[in-house]
Amino acid sequence: MKTIKILCIGDIVSVPGRSAVRNLLPAITEEHRPDIVIANGENLSHGNGISRQHYREMCESGIDAFTLGNHAWGHKDAYNLLKYERNIIRPLNFDKRCAGSGSCVIDKNGISVGIINLIGRVYMPVPCDSPFNALEREVERLKKKTNIIIVDFHAEATSEKQALGWFADGKVSAVFGTHTHVQTADEFVMPKGTGYISDLGMTGAVYSVLGMDKNSIVERFLTGIHGRFELADGRYRLSGAVFEIDASDGKCTGITRINAMQLPH
User: Fold this and answer.
1) What pLDDT is attached to residue 265?
2) Looking at 32, 46, 54, 71, which residue is catalytic?
């Protein structure tokens, strides 16, 4: 049995997140030897969207493919990135008139991996179609190219994430959640061979609230005054998971959560 390892990295948030990728990813790669690295990049630039400069920086740092989410259009560069770069995708169940694609196939070292990006509908402030129907249609199309398919479900509600995981069991190799920026400890391989985790967590500032300055967020909860969100800085972490996939049938055989931190000063 040939095993493929796919490292999936949770939402990269601004400067601390990019620093975490540059400085922590090499050691993680050395230890786990992933064949392909996928990351959610919707918060890559200033916490809102993805710029061409930061996209290139992360590609040079070892990321092979990028998924997005509700902040997909947060930076003006996203439109051309999605139009011209084949390794960056936005949620498939966005309106079909949106720029870009909701899936891609990455070919690297003789391995082909299909990637699907979906967005949830529960508590999410963006119009979109059913992620369940979109997934089913796209899996059928991608199966003609590869039996290894990874899904990033960018969603708020864990119930919706789990439901989609069960719906996808046996159809895809792995489903991971993004968006909440808090890593969950519920990783497991489903009965029909799909690896699952509700949320990969965040790649960004440790001393923060979801990547934002902790003091301003605490003040907001204390007073109810909705001030401007400020990005946090300082010590960083890289969160994600490594999925081990049987190359012959595309089934997941194991999952290892990743939560690496910069050493304190």
Assistant:
1) 61
2) 71
